[in-house]
Amino acid sequence: MKKGIYIYFLVSGWLIIKCTADVLAGKDEYYQAPHSTYSIDTTPEDPNRCTDNVPSRCDPTYPYRTFDGTCNNLDHPRWGSANECYLRFQKAFYEGYGEVRKSMRGNSLPEPRQLTLNIFTDAHRPTPKTSFMLTIFGQGVAHDLGDVVLLNANVDCCASGSENNPACLPILFRPNDPDFSRYNVTCIQFHTSKNCNLCNTANREQISDVTSVLDASIVYDCSNERSNNMRAYDGTGKLISNQTNEGELLPNGKDPGDGFCPKAQESMCFLAGDRRVNQHATLTSLQTLLLREHNRLATSLKQMNPHWDEERLFQEARRINIAQLQCITYKEYLPYVLGPNLMEQFNLNIRDGPDGTLYNPNTRPGIVNEFSTAAFRLHSMVASKVGALGLHFEDLYLNPKLIWEGHMDKLMKGVCQVPSEKFDHWYTKGVTVELTKQPDSSYGSDLSSTDIQRGRDAGLAPYIYLVRFCSENQIKIMTFDDLSSMMSAENIELLKQNYDSVEDVDLWVGLHMEYHLPGAEVGPTTACIIAKQFYLIKFGDRFYFEHIGQVPSFTPVQRNTLKQCSFSRLLCDNTNITQTQKNVMLLPSAENPEVSCNEIPKIDLSLWKDWESS
């Protein structure tokens, strides 16, 4: 088998990927855009980019991350930083420079809302093994890794004449829509992405507002100014928080770019490192948990090292907090999304013991458009019920009041007790009708239609091109019937009924239709894209916690104890929860029983005692 090749084959009704991860190490794995090399893994900074704010030099001896992600790669200071262009695995598909592509017959593509009604219908299809916490945690990771910059989010894209506004790509509903017609809703807002600051490119590209590595930017933000405004600066190294009878909460405030703070609860909204913190109460709870953990770490470090100043206390607490987030992602989250084969083949597993991994300065840790805009949008896994207070998920939207009322522990415990939904084309109404529904409103929005429109605005290549890419050209889909090894006959028929040609199928739609890999929550093409992305942000991140031989590397004993990480330990240390299953990404079972917090391993913070300076 050719080195780096992917081969799909069918075994007992399951589609398997055979692959090797070293194709990504130092290889040109991205699509090379005409007249531009900005997306190539091994090239210098793109000479065709209209550059701005490039650091004049990086200090190779500085042991901490910058907030905006610059100087992670010392030779290419902007790799992985905030406000960078998204990368691509495949060329962009637009009409002209940046208009939504047409079908192969030259017609408009199927309306997003009609695809939702015809394909992404309501059903309860729970996973047998994974908890709803897997989905909630995954959204936190997704927000840490990407947030597309919009051209103008303040425009009313449903107003008359907005169809000619370049900032708008409204999603239209038919007059007989079964869900929205009763409310006289014929349109939902969709704001287009801002063009990345590139010169001499053949088409539009998108910008990420956040860093491209897993650095807890949802806690610490991605700019010096905003990050500094969130710090207490009282000699403790802590972040600002609200001290309440219900525990430590995020600070009050409304981010000007929030969009998730309802006027009725404006005084209760929270500020965090990510503007989407108020989107729903379980996401708010997750970000509150990470803030509490930072402050807990800072307190412990100060007790051990009273001679440390404010900056060192803050940065060391931040460094450990980020390491735990990375550890939980690669140890407890990704294995159940990707399955054991891809975890091993892409070297994504966390190994026991003090051994470390090697940073590769030729690996570019950018976020890939196909990942952020399609493959990692696992919204069909959102469950209807949250397992607490008798609430449905739609009751949590734009509802920070639930946190102020002291329900955070119940929400966190609840999502550990109920299953996620399966990743497939069945969606709960809480996502397709009631998305971000305000507490006093009768209806919300449609996330599946929005996701389809987002892929078109981003110019994502159709589904079959990513199948070809992930199979190293071994699989070429020419007709709908060529999909028979990848999805059921029923799913193929759904695609036939809604698309003129197999080449028209949107990437996001096609990914939902595949058979799942063994031991994974997703199909092979989704898994391929996600695995490649997490390889890049692991081995292309100089500060990744397992790496050895770098200025910011942890000591072997520190690295070994950090590998004891678990989300259950975060819950035990930062809430009033006293018992939970050891792996909260999985449902409680005989193999994963609830245990006392006393039985869940702790990270040994005494290994950060500074004996030389004390």
TrEMBL record:
Heme b binds at residue 379. Residues 1-21 form the signal peptide. InterPro entries: Haem_peroxidase_animal, Haem_peroxidase_sf, Haem_peroxidase_sf_animal. It is found in: Secreted. GO terms for cellular component: extracellular region. One of its GO terms (biological process) is response to oxidative stress. Transmembrane segments: none annotated. Gene3D superfamilies: Haem peroxidase domain superfamily, animal type. GO terms for molecular function: heme binding; metal ion binding; peroxidase activity. CDD domains: peroxinectin_like (cd09823). Keywords: Heme, Iron, Metal-binding, Oxidoreductase, Peroxidase, Secreted, Signal. This is Peroxidase. The lineage of its organism: Eukaryota, Metazoa, Ecdysozoa, Arthropoda, Chelicerata. The gene is Pxd.
